[in-house]
Amino acid sequence: MKIVPILMIAIVLAFCNCNKSNQKGLKFGAPVKMWHVDTTGDGVADTWGYFINEPGNFRPIYEEIDKNLDGHSDEFIWAGSAVYSPKNRPEREVVKVHEESDQNNDGKIDTIKWLLPNEFFAMGQLDEDNDGFFETTTYYNIKKQIVRKEKDTDHNGKPDVILWTMIPRVEVDSNSDGIPDKFKTAKSNLELESVKKDSVGLLPLAKSDSWYLNQNKVPQENRALIGSGMFDTK
Question: How far is 167 from 25, CA to CA, in rounded Å?
Answer without folding.
Answer: 49
